[in-house]
Amino acid sequence: MAKLTYLERPVYGMTEVDELLSLSSGTARRWIDGYERRGRHYDPVVRHESTDSDLVTWGEFVETRLLAQYRDAGVPMLRMRPVVEAGTGQYVLAPPARSFKRTVEFEDVDNLGVVTRIRPLGLKREVVIDPDRRSGAPVVRAVPTDVLAELIRAGEPIEWVAKQYDLTLDQVLDAWEYERSQAA
Question: What is the pTM of this model?
Fold first, then answer.
């Protein structure tokens, strides 16, 4: 059996992708695996062909995040689909791609520059989404951001939360900001 590359590693389910990327329910499945609506078939945008698998690889997650940034910038999927299918040879990054690049860390994996980590608030911020940490859940160091945010929502002082997890105030505030942005 061939060893899976870093990008081929299954990390998430479709629902988790929707939640982590703040997508409407079912969007990840439509983009990643395709769908049918009113008797018409729509091919996947991320995968080459539909697999009917609920598992999402790290590479598919990263590509879906990039598509989400383009859509958030006002580019409808109807306009993105032909570009993804055809390829453009584009060398100048559009604003959503530049924004995406400012939030990802690349490493040499299998002789490729591969996105190995996402820092959704920016490269100098503490929240990390990494398939090698907590199964890809957003964390600050090894502490899930939702755990930190839940304590703050329950009324615990930020200073107390930081001390309990041996984190800095900035680390806890980044987790809080991330979780609030996900809820918005």
Answer: 0.79
